[in-house]
Amino acid sequence: QVQLVETGGGLVQAGGSLRLSCAASGLTFSRADMGWFRQAPGKEREFVAGISWSGTTTDYADSVKGRFTISRDNAKITVYLQMNSTKPEDTAVYYCAADIFSRSTWYVAGMNYWGKGTLVTVSS
Prior knowledge:
By secondary structure, this protein is mostly beta strands. About 0% of the residues lie in helices and about 50% in strands. The chain contains no helices and 11 strands. Strands 2, 4, 5, 6, 9, 10 and 11 form a 7-stranded mixed β-sheet that branches. A 4-stranded antiparallel β-sheet has the order 1-3-8-7, with no helix packed on it. The protein is globular, with a radius of gyration of 13 Å.
């Protein structure tokens, strides 16, 4: 059974940093593309960052490029999202997702598995 568990969410002041973690189990982690998505109140779930199964390529939404960094540690079976220079508009529930077909298309419907999310609140 595939399970993704996000941790690291919480309250941070604007401009501050936060690191989210996603621990995966039940899948061949090293061969799955991993991504972070977020959903703010009243908005659709949107792509934030993605990383290929090999870790050699990454993709970012324009809104977070230059501020957020996605990485993975296959030995620890974990993917991370380093959030720097946070803004109030980053406030959302952040979800970890996996694509076992490694398509790197980064759309919600294309992801196979999802975590339950972790709330990030950025105060001004």
